[in-house]
Amino acid sequence: MQKEKTSIRNPKEGSTILNSQLSDNSAKIIFEDPILCAQFLRNYLGMSIMKDLRPEDIEDVTSRYVPLIGEERNSDIVKRVNVPDKIPFFFVSLIEHKTQVEYNVCMQIFRYMFLIWDDYEKEQNKNAKGASKRKSFRYPPILPILYYEGKRAWTAAKEFHERVFGSDIFGKYIPNFTYSLVSLYDYSNENLLGMGDEISLVMLINKLQAADDIGEFRRLPADRLDAVLKDTPDYLLDKIALIFRMLLMKLNVPEEETEELVGRVKEREMGQLFANMEKMDIQEERRKTLEAERKLQEAEGKVQEAEGKLQKALKVMTNMCMDAGLTKVETQRKLQVEFGISLKESDEIVNRYWKEKQ
Questions:
Q1: Could you tell me the pTM of the whole model?
Q2: 58, 107 in Cβ contact below 8 A?
Q3: Residues 6+ apart with CB under 8 A from 305
Q4: What is the per-residue pLDDT across 265-278, written as a single tens digit (0 to 9) for each?
Q5: Which tens digit of pLDDT belongs to each residue from 291-311?
Q6: Coil, strand or helix: which one is 135?
Q7: What is the distance between the alpha carbons of residues 102 and 97, in angstroms, rounded to a whole number?
Q8: Where are the domains of the chain?
Q9: Residue 183: HSE in the Cβ half-sphere, 13 Å Cα cutoff
Q10: From start to end of the chain, where are the E strands?
C-alpha cells in the first residue's frame, strides 16, 4: 500500500515536510550530518577503530548507490569512512523502516554490498588496468547498521543465512554476514545524557512519544541538558530544532505549542523545554485530533448526501410541475414554498431542468 503523503508547511521557515516521511527524514538528518554521524559511530558501535573518528573523515556517497536500489530506499545512507592510519571502509545505514520491524533488511543490505564492491572494483580497474585480477587485490570492508527507534523488540533475522532455505546444509556455499543493530530503547535516558553530545540529545528527543516520556525527560538535570548545546554550532542547533519540530508535527502537537517548544531548543534551553507544561498527553491530543477529523468527514459526508437528496427532490418537483402544465413562474413559486429556497435559486433550478426537458 502506498503511503499517504500529506504536506505540512512550517510558516516561519517555509519548509515543507511530508507526514509519511517524518520518521525517515528525522533519522536521515542525523546520519547526513558529519558531526552527528561521527558521534554516532564513535559512541554506539563499540569499535576501537572509531574512537578517534572525526567528521572530516566521513564522505557521503549516498547519491552514488541509493538510486540504483530504487526510489523507495531514498532514506538510506551510504558513507565512505577514511580513518587516518586505519583501514578505510564503507558503512551502510538502513533507516527507512526504523520505527517498525522490517524482515527483509538482510537482503536490502546484501544488495548494497554488491553494488559497493562492484563499483569499487570498476573504480580500481579504471585507475590501474587489471587491478582486481591481482592476488593482492582486496575489497573494502562494509559495516551495515540499522538504527531502530521502535519500542517493540527487533525480531528480524540478523544473519543472512537465516533468510535462505537449507542454509544448514548448504551453509558454506551461501554468503553470510550480520548487521549492527542500534536500538534506541536499549539506552536509558541517563545513559544517553551521560554521553554529553548532540547525537545523544537527538536520541533523547526521539524517545518523546507519550506523556510518560515527557515526565521522565523533565526529571533529567536541567544544567546537564543545557550543557550539551553550550558549544553547538548554530547550523547544527537548527538541525536539532528541525528534528524536534518534525517529532512534534508527527505527534500532532498544536502549532502554537510547537513554536514555543522549538524556540526553547534554539535558545539552548533544553533543561526548561517542558517547564510550563504540567502534563502534555500527546497521544490523547492526537486521539482528539483524529476523532475531530473523523467527525468533520462524517459531517461533510452527510451534508453532501443531503445536498444530493435535495437536488433530486427539486428535479422531481420541477418535472411534475412541467408535466402538469405550470408555467416557469408558477413552478418557481411552487419550489420556493415547498423547499424554502430563494427566488434566485428557484430560477436557476427551473431554467436548468426546463432545458433538459426540451
A1: 0.68
A2: no
A3: none
A4: 999 999 888 776 55
A5: 777 888 888 888 888 888 888
A6: coil
A7: 6
A8: 7-287, 306-357
A9: 13
A10: 7-10, 15-18, 58-60, 77-81, 89-94, 142-148, 180-183
